[in-house]
């Protein structure tokens, strides 16, 4: 698409980056309604005109799924919002989700040419705008699948990698069935990300659009128990299988006091609130005790979600304890900023050493040690070093540990010949194939914890690889399996 913006580059650079409309912090800290309301049409149009329409748009390879960002922004300039969201959907079938939770500031926006001297184009906010416009005006039309293939493909897990893989294969004409262990589809999008960041009605819309492609979804179906991988191949007649079961097994620090009542993993805490609707107690009978003061350990997006959730559940003081400085925090800057606005108290360069209990074995405090930063470690971040004699105790009635997770071992333990690596991560090759021919894997199951968009990329790569694998089988060729 040739350049269409009538403004000169020098004029575009004078336009300030448009900010989202948001709930006031003092209000939103006490409800689970969405924090950001996104851009309105006027702001979206103005923001789109900031695009320099680069001849070599580096933002496209900056996107893990290679969305044609230049073209979709030009369609926004022309007020063709449905055309814009359909352009995104050519390579990203979950635009309303990615527009909310994808870390664009580290990807497409990080390499934006405008961003070299001025604020980068708000690509993520514009993605959300066009996706929401389509939803609000009921303008979605499911793509027409022109080719229909005989092979059946099973997707294990209805998280971002599984949903993406299913959508891509369905568009190619395959018969796709998703098997989900929980009672609703979405995976980490449903049980991990709070309502105030990703409303369930948005997730439901995106899932229904995948169903509109002809994808079947079986919930309450635990592969490895309800049926094994071998049974899916045999009795069920599937020709290929994609594993996207995520990383739902929590990691703990291993400090004294973790068995006390009032200690949660972030996985349990967020699942009880988000999936089981504890935030709507007593309407839903899933109470979660946080007390007046709660500590969340960690510095990533999960920790940020947990501490902001604790605040909304009624904690007067919600502490985030992180052993490095703010600069090293892996959480999105927007989420850190929102947390600070909402009154979350950050204890940085602080490391918990013991959880303190009362006579009834309930949490009553957390002992911590001050840290200072030394030389970089294997992660590239400066290593935290304890400061002798700096111990102190914070009075808290609940502790949430958000320090990592690993895959659930059920599929691995019931699938002979499936090679695994550290912490049960499934070994895959560069096209997501496992050591079992015809079995592919992606997302947190193959990564051990990553972003939604990287899981989606795995799903896309796997879909292409599954198509090629089945084409080879159809013509008498053989696929190559990954080795440990």
Q: Approximately how much beta-strand content do the residues carry?
A: 15-25%
Radius of gyration: 23 Å
* Helical content class: 25-40%
Q: What's the total number of strands?
A: 18
Class based on secondary structure composition and strand pairing? alpha/beta
Low-pLDDT segments, ≥5 res: none
The assembly state of the depicted protein chains is: single chain
End-to-end Cα distance, whole Å, is 44 Å
Can you give a write-up of this model?
The chain has helices at residues 9-12, 25-28, 41-48, 59-62, 69-77, 81-89, 95-101, 123-136, 160-171, 188-191, 200-211, 229-233, 266-275, 301-312, 333-341, 410-413, 444-447, 452-474; strands at 21-22, 36-38, 152-156, 175-179, 216-218, 240-243, 249-250, 263-265, 293-297, 317-322, 345-348, 350-357, 363-376, 382-386, 392-394, 398-401, 405-406, 439-441. The protein contains 18 helices and 18 strands. By secondary structure, it is α/β, with parallel strands linked by helices. The strands form five sheets. Strands 5-4-3-6-18 form a five-stranded parallel sheet. A five-stranded parallel sheet has the order 8-16-9-10-11. The model has no long low-confidence stretch (mean pLDDT 95).
List keywords for this structure.
484 residues, five-stranded parallel beta sheet
List the helices and strands and how they pair.
Elements: H1 9-12, E1 21-22, H2 25-28, E2 36-38, H3 41-48, H4 59-62, H5 69-77, H6 81-89, H7 95-101, H8 123-136, E3 152-156, H9 160-171, E4 175-179, H10 188-191, H11 200-211, E5 216-218, H12 229-233, E6 240-243, E7 249-250, E8 263-265, H13 266-275, E9 293-297, H14 301-312, E10 317-322, H15 333-341, E11 345-348, E12 350-357, E13 363-376, E14 382-386, E15 392-394, E16 398-401, E17 405-406, H16 410-413, E18 439-441, H17 444-447, H18 452-474
Parallel strand pairs: 3-4, 3-6, 4-5, 6-18, 8-16, 9-10, 9-16, 10-11
Antiparallel strand pairs: 1-2, 7-17, 12-13, 13-14, 13-15
Helix pairs in contact: 3-5, 3-8, 5-6, 6-8, 7-8, 9-18, 13-14
């Amino acid at each position: 698409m040739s350049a269409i913006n009538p403004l000169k580059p020098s004029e575009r650079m004078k336009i300030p980056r448009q900010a989202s409309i948001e709930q006031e912090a003092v209000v939103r800290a006490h409800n689970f309604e969405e924090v950001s309301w996104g851009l309105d049409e006027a702001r979206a149009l103005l923001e789109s005109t900031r695009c320099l329409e680069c001849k070599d748009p580096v933002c496209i390879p900056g996107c893990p799924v290679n969305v044609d960002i230049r073209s979709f922004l030009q369609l926004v300039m022309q007020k063709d919002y449905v055309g814009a969201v359909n352009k995104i959907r050519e390579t990203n079938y979950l635009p309303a989700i990615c527009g909310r939770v994808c870390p664009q500031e580290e990807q497409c926006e990080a390499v934006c040419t405008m961003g070299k001297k001025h604020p980068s184009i708000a690509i993520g906010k514009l993605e959300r705008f066009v996706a929401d416009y389509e939803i609000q005006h009921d303008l979605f039309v499911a793509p027409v699948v022109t080719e229909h293939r005989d092979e059946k493909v099973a997707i294990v897990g209805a998280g971002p990698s599984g949903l993406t893989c299913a959508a891509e294969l369905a568009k190619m004409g395959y018969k796709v069935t998703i098997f989900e262990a929980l009672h609703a589809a979405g995976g980490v999008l449903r049980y991990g990300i709070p309502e105030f960041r990703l409303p369930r009605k948005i997730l439901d819309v995106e899932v229904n659009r995948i169903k509109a492609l002809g994808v079947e979804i079986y919930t309450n179906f635990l592969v490895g128990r309800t049926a094994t991988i071998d049974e899916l191949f045999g009795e069920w007649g599937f020709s290929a299988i994609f594993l996207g079961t995520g990383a739902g097994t929590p990691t703990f620090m291993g400090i004294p006091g973790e068995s006390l009542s009032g200690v949660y993993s972030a996985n349990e805490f967020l699942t009880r609130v988000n999936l089981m609707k504890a935030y709507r107690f007593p309407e839903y009978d899933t109470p979660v005790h946080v007390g007046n003061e709660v500590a969340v350990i960690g510095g990533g997006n999960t920790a940020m979600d947990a501490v902001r959730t604790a605040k909304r559940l009624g904690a007067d003081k919600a502490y985030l304890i992180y052993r490095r400085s703010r600069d090293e925090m892996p959480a999105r800057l927007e989420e850190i900023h929102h947390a600070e606005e909402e009154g979350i108290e950050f204890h940085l360069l602080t490391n918990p050493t013991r959880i303190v209990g009362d006579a009834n074995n309930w949490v009553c405090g957390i002992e911590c040690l001050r840290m200072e930063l030394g030389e970089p470690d294997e992660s590239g971040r400066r290593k935290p070093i304890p400061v002798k004699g700096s111990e102190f105790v914070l009075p808290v009635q609940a502790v949430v540990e958000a320090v990592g997770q690993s895959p659930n071992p059920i599929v691995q333990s019931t699938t002979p010949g499936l090679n695994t690596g550290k912490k049960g991560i499934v070994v895959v090759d560069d096209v997501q194939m496992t050591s079992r021919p015809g079995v592919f894997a992606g997302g947190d199951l193959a990564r051990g914890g990553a972003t939604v968009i990287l899981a989606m990329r795995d799903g896309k790569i796997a879909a292409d690889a599954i198509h090629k694998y089945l084409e080879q089988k159809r013509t008498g060729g053989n696929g190559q399996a990954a080795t440990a």
